[in-house]
């Protein structure tokens, strides 16, 4: 994800939301997230910009299930 974002190439991924819903993001790039002094959860969150919705979002990294169509195991 970092390599794609460094050259401004959007990537797709899927994750499970905290409420149990399945979320698919078709075009995203990473962005700066919270600093450690701003949130206790900063090191667990991945911040991204959703190009389809035009919004800044974040998700818990342990909930990531696919990246560019490939299953992810942590």
What does this structure look like?
With 74 residues, the chain is mainly β. It has one domain (2-71). The chain is built from 1 helix and 6 strands, in the order αββββββ. Strands 4-3-2-1-5-6 form a 6-stranded antiparallel β-sheet. β1 (11-16) and β2 (22-30) form a beta hairpin. It is globular, with a radius of gyration of 12 Å. Pfam families: WYL_2.
Output the radius of gyration.
Answer: 12 Å
Amount of helix: under 10%
Largest sheet, in brief, is: 6 strands, antiparallel
Structural class: mainly beta
How many domains? The number is 1
Beta-strand content: 35-45%
Low-confidence stretches: none
Give the mean pLDDT. Answer: 91
What's the overall geometry? globular
Number of helices: 1
> For the largest beta sheet, what order do the strands appear in spatially?
4-3-2-1-5-6
Q: What is the tally of beta strands?
A: 6
- How would you spell out the order of helices and strands? HEEEEEE
Euclidean distance between termini CA atoms: 15 Å
InterPro entries: WYL_prot
């Amino acid at each position: 994800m970092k390599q794609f974002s460094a050259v401004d190439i959007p990537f797709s991924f899927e994750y499970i939301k905290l409420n149990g819903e399945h979320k698919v993001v078709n075009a995203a790039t990473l962005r700066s997230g919270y600093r450690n002094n701003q949130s206790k959860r900063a090191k667990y969150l991945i911040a991204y910009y959703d190009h389809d919705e035009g919004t800044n979002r974040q998700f818990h990294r342990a909930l990531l299930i696919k990246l560019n169509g490939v299953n992810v195991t942590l």
